[in-house]
Amino acid sequence: MSAPTAAELLELQEALYESKNPTRRWLHVTRRDWVVAAIRRFAVNSGRALEVGPGSGVYLPELAATSEQVVAADIEDAYLEQARTLAESDLKITVVCDDITATQLPEGEAQLVLCTEVIEHIADSEAALCGLAKLVSDDGVLILTTPQKYSPLELCAKIAFLPGVIQLVRLIYREPVIPTGHINLLTESELLGQVAASGLVVESSFKCGFYLPLVAELGGEAGCRLLKWCEGKLRGSALSWLLWTQCYILRRVSAG
């Protein structure tokens, strides 16, 4: 199966938050709500905010509502075009083409940098994190999210796209279902090692989203409630690696 195009990924992103499947919708809305809360906490009256990899642009209006200036940076034409469409109705938003692994953006000028569900699409995530670290101001934060390597959802996704299986999955969901494009999934320890190497430190962290096959697809609202309960039990435990998404508030290491 060929890799999805940026346009296909954009269509998928736009559909996920309103999915008819309760679990699929919950998995994405939970992460979105955590990111929005983090933006509202750290971007209030900030001078400059930057989103690396804005995707469908779900966070750009929130950034524009809390910052004086917002820069949306990507290298994919479909995502850049989507951001430009949003920028037409909000003069605070500027759109630039930039590769975060070799960024040409001004260093240390963003009070808030947002990079959510991006580094798993980049082969050299260590270079990407170093690029992100350079962009954060001394008193700023980086909001970062990425999937956990061995979460059941990521493991099952590998099976879901096997020939013969994907047709059944699409029949069940009756929504866009395309390969994730995740080429660089990281465990918590792998990610934190790269974070430290980039000169960033963790201020706070959060994990969310629990998936079980068949329960998610066939369990409806009752299945979703069960998975939410499991999520609460797993968070903070030795089994938290089973949760789908790892989320972080990161700061630059103080020179002092």
Written overview of the protein:
The protein is an alpha/beta fold and 256 residues long. It is built from ten helices and seven strands. A seven-stranded mixed beta sheet has the order 3-2-1-4-5-7-6, sandwiched between helices. Strand 2, helix 4 and strand 3 (93-97) form a beta-alpha-beta unit.
- How many strands in all? 7
Tell me the Rg in angstroms.
18 Å
Total number of helices: 10
Distance between the termini: 51 Å
- SSE string, helices as H and strands as E: HHEHEHEEHEHHHEHHE
Please, what is the average pLDDT? 92
Uncertain segments are: none
Q: Helix fraction?
A: 40-55%
Strand order of the largest sheet: 3-2-1-4-5-7-6
- What share of residues are in beta strands? 15-25%
Q: What is the overall shape?
A: globular
**Helix-and-strand structural type:** alpha/beta
Largest sheet: 7 strands, mixed
Features:
256 residues; alpha/beta; seven-stranded mixed beta sheet; 10 helices; 7 strands
Q: How is this fold's topology laid out?
A:
Layout: H1 6-16, H2 22-42, E1 46-52, H3 60-66, E2 67-74, H4 77-87, E3 93-97, E4 110-116, H5 125-135, E5 136-147, H6 152-160, H7 165-173, H8 188-197, E6 200-208, H9 215-218, H10 220-234, E7 245-252
Parallel strand pairs: 1-2, 1-4, 2-3, 4-5
Antiparallel strand pairs: 5-7, 6-7
Structure at a glance:
The chain is α/β, with parallel strands linked by helices and 256 residues long. It has helices at residues 6-16, 22-42, 60-66, 77-87, 125-135, 152-160, 165-173, 188-197, 215-218, 220-234, and strands at residues 46-52, 67-74, 93-97, 110-116, 136-147, 200-208, 245-252. The model has no long low-confidence stretch (mean pLDDT 92).
